[in-house]
Every structure is written in structure tokens, then in C-alpha cells.
Amino acid sequence: MLVLTRKSNQSIMIGDDIEVSVLSVMGDKVRIGIQAPTAVPVFRTEIYIEIHGDQGKPARGNQRGQVGRGQVERGQIESAIDDALDDMRDGSAG
After folding, report:
1. How far apart are CA 75 and CA 20, in angstroms?
2. Which of 18, 42, 22 lies closest to 32, judged by CA?
3. Are 36 and 22 in contact (CB under 8 A)?
4. Rounded to whole angstroms, how far apart are CA atoms 18 and 9?
């Protein structure tokens, strides 16, 4: 894990397309902004885990860039996202 220190109004770049900005720091809360292409899904970890269910944490790629076991097809991800959002709207999300 790379650990960086940033102040308000500073950011980091992930690759060429993703920028993570520190918008504000208030006590123990940090407000961040993430600018990424629409093709890159961005979720809070608890939502990601809920979407992926038993698969748990994100799949890691191997050294050749292939996706690890447990990867879900794009259509399944979109369906799981829709289901999770519906659950949250209905108040049944855990």
C-alpha cells in the first residue's frame, strides 16, 4: 500500500485518467473527490462488498495483468449494482 500525505486542495493521480482530490478535512473526516472515466466504476468499499457478495474484496490481477479468480462479468456487475441500489432505496440493505 502506498501511503501519501495531502492537504486540502491537493490531489494525486492514478495513471493518466484518475485524479483523487482532498476537498476538505474536518476533525477525523476527510472529504475526497474522485475524477475518473465513466468506464471506471468507483464505489465505497462497503458498497463494493455488498455488490460482490461472497466474493468479498476486489479481485487482484496477476503479474500479466489478468484478472484474478472471482471476477464478475460486466453485465453481472451492472445487475448487482442495480439490485444493491434498489435494496438501499427500499431500506433493506445490510
Report:
1. 27
2. 22
3. no
4. 16
